[in-house]
Amino acid sequence: MNRFYLLGTAILSFIIPILSYSFDKSADIDSVLLPVVTISAQMENGLNTGMNHPTLPGNISLGQILLTVYLTGVLILGTQLMRRLVFIRNFIRRNGGKTVTVTPEIDSVSFFKWIFIHPRHQENGNQWVLEHERVHSRQGHSFDVLVMEILTVLNWFNPFIYLFNLARNT
Prior knowledge:
Elements: H1 2-15, H2 41-48, H3 62-94, E1 100-102, E2 109-111, E3 114-117, H4 127-138, H5 141-154, H6 159-169
Parallel strand pairs: 1-3
Antiparallel strand pairs: 2-3
Helix pairs in contact: 1-5, 1-6, 3-5, 5-6
């Protein structure tokens, strides 16, 4: 239940802002009439004095800078995620696509239907590690992890995504 809550709220945080809302504007709202105020051109110029917005060389706007920083973060984290996925794909191919693979290269972990067991977890009859990874595999834990990794790539600037990841890992 906890995993569905965490995954659902993370996905909803992207969907809700996209939705369009309509409110009943015919509701009876008391209106207040405000007095008319006229601002002369001289007064308007006086108000704007000293309120110059900072300009950047080459007509670069703050929005362009923020978009560049955001896209750079997405590019870096997206590249890291792709490298990890390619590593896993190559590792599965190298080991013949076996469901359970004993390997000292990576720690005990499951990825969809594949389970990788570190040799230290096979010593002394530690079958609970294999069973633990089988449960993760059956419950589709890899899907949760992959979705949260993609959301982290897209939302890297938001500190709450890291709190979601901490909660998911506990």
